[in-house]
Amino acid sequence: MRANVRFLREEKMEELSNTESQPGGEAMDGELLSRAERRDQQIQRILEAAKTCFVRSGFQGASMQQICAEVGMSPGALYRYFPSKEAIVEAICEADRQDDMTCFGALRDATSAIDGLVAGAMAHITHTSMKGSAPLFAEMRSESMRNEAIRATVDGHKGEVAAMIEPLIAEAIAQGEINPPVELPILMAVLMSIGEGMAINDLPARGVPLDKLEIALRAMLEGMLRPTKSTPAAE
């Protein structure tokens, strides 16, 4: 009974806090936030706080209590949204997946496989650099080597990205557009590993100009995929 009372009290305090955080207790359109909107706001606050804690203390060093302190939320309230750090990582990866779908949308509209890969990679590099995602990405990849649950989440996300890229390359091979020197599974493994390395190193933040990075990326892909003829963008 006491646990139920405490749960209801925390929920009510959380709702009041959410309402007070808006000017006049209202959303931008002048209407009170719905329960779903308040929940979405709280989830975003938790995820941002968790990212800060993971980068600052590492996944192992960051506790749920530290995340609670960072977001300004009681443990009881936090556990209603996420039962574990692994669940938080899964939510972070889901948000990243949505970003990746947008970045690699250029694959569908490209006139050639290499053009599509360059456009998608540059969109992803620019987006992740602007968000400052490299430290978090490196921490999550490192933790995935020790934690099976995190590994499953990270590898699942990586597999979804590969699933967007592989059909484009397979079609280009079938049509004789490119002639890579190795089988498609090996080629994909190499490309995905290169992509991970670029995400972790955040070359734009290290002073590499985006235009020069694009030139180098295109030259690398042409060397690996071996186009059978020059494309207008490559000339």
Automatic annotation (TrEMBL):
<dbReference type="GO" id="GO:0000976">
    <property type="term" value="F:transcription cis-regulatory region binding"/>
</dbReference>
<keyword id="KW-0805">Transcription regulation</keyword>
<dbReference type="GO" id="GO:0003700">
    <property type="term" value="F:DNA-binding transcription factor activity"/>
</dbReference>
<keyword id="KW-0804">Transcription</keyword>
<dbReference type="InterPro" id="IPR050109">
    <property type="entry name" value="HTH-type_TetR-like_transc_reg"/>
</dbReference>
<keyword id="KW-0238">DNA-binding</keyword>
<dbReference type="Pfam" id="PF00440">
    <property type="entry name" value="TetR_N"/>
</dbReference>
<dbReference type="InterPro" id="IPR009057">
    <property type="entry name" value="Homeodomain-like_sf"/>
</dbReference>
<feature type="DNA-binding region" description="H-T-H motif">
    <location>
        <begin position="63"/>
        <end position="82"/>
    </location>
</feature>
<feature type="domain" description="HTH tetR-type">
    <location>
        <begin position="40"/>
        <end position="100"/>
    </location>
</feature>
<dbReference type="InterPro" id="IPR001647">
    <property type="entry name" value="HTH_TetR"/>
</dbReference>
<dbReference type="InterPro" id="IPR036271">
    <property type="entry name" value="Tet_transcr_reg_TetR-rel_C_sf"/>
</dbReference>
<protein>
    <submittedName>
        <fullName>TetR family transcriptional regulator</fullName>
    </submittedName>
</protein>
